[in-house]
Each structure stands twice: as structure tokens, then as C-alpha cells.
């Protein structure tokens, strides 16, 4: 594949040699080549806040997405999330939370290998953490 600068975004040329169709060559625009590899200028939180501020000022979705260089669908998602929840912060994931923290799991692994899972459950209950035997076994094995 050859990456060459041209005026078109993607220009696919199908070259045939001996009547066969060979691989396409892609040509990328110079502006796209300039964008690739650069880090994002503003952080995620600032970008979300800026989207909400621009929406409050009466800007349309398209006029918000172009200067920030984000898709219209992302702008629409952030605006709907702000209208519904009143914030653009990330929400917690669904599912049951873990009983043992990564630090607790690390200490369980470092304890004597001859200690049984039942004994470890008793040790954890003494510290105030109620945990099942299967949870301890999941960490150990």
C-alpha cells in the first residue's frame, strides 16, 4: 500500500496486470496525514464540559462537532446525557462489585500456601470482611 498525499480523502486505484485485479492503493489527504499521530489537545472532561457549554449557548450539534473535531453522534450523546442526568461524568458499570480489593487479593496470595481457603475466610471475617469460600478460591487458583 502506498500512502501518498492527494486532494481526495480515499482514492482507490484498481490496477490490473495481465487481466488480474491486484491490491488497491490508498491515497490519503495531506490534512489527514497531519492529524494522524498527534495527541489530543484537550482532555476528556474539558471536552465534555465544552460541548455542554456550547449547547447551552444555543449552538447546533454540527457547529459544536466541527471545531472540537468530534463526531456529531458523540456530541448528541453528551447533550442527551447532560439533559437526562445533569452531568457528563462517567457512570458506574453494571454488575456486582468485587468483595475483595486488589490489595486484599494480593495479601491473600502472599499468605502461607498451606493455609486452606476456610482458614483464609475466617481470617478475613476477623478483619471485618465477609467473603465466601468460592471468592477466596477464585483469587488463589
From TrEMBL:
Q: Which stretches make up the Sleeping Beauty transposase HTH domain?
A: 36-89
The record's section on InterPro entries has: Homeodomain-like_sf, HTH_SB, WH-like_DNA-bd_sf
Which Pfam family is an annotated match for this chain, by its short name? HTH_SB
Q: From what superkingdom does this record's organism come?
A: Eukaryota
Q: What is this protein called?
A: Sleeping Beauty transposase HTH domain-containing protein
Amino acid at each position: 500500500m502506498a500512502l501518498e498525499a492527494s486532494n481526495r480523502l480515499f482514492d482507490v486505484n484498481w490496477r490490473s496486470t495481465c487481466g488480474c485485479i491486484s491490491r488497491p492503493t490508498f491515497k490519503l489527504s495531506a490534512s489527514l496525514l497531519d492529524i494522524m499521530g498527534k495527541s489530543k489537545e484537550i482532555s476528556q472532561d474539558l471536552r465534555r464540559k465544552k460541548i455542554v457549554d456550547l449547547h447551552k449557548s444555543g449552538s447546533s450539534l454540527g457547529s459544536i462537532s466541527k471545531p472540537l473535531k468530534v463526531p456529531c453522534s458523540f456530541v448528541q450523546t453528551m447533550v442527551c446525557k447532560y439533559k437526562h442526568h445533569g452531568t457528563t461524568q462517567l457512570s458506574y458499570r453494571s454488575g456486582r462489585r468485587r468483595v475483595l480489593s486488589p490489595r486484599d487479593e494480593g495479601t491473600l496470595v502472599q499468605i502461607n500456601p498451606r493455609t486452606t481457603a476456610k482458614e483464609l475466610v475466617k481470617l478475613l471475617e476477623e478483619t471485618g470482611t465477609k467473603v465466601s469460600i468460592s471468592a477466596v478460591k477464585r483469587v488463589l487458583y
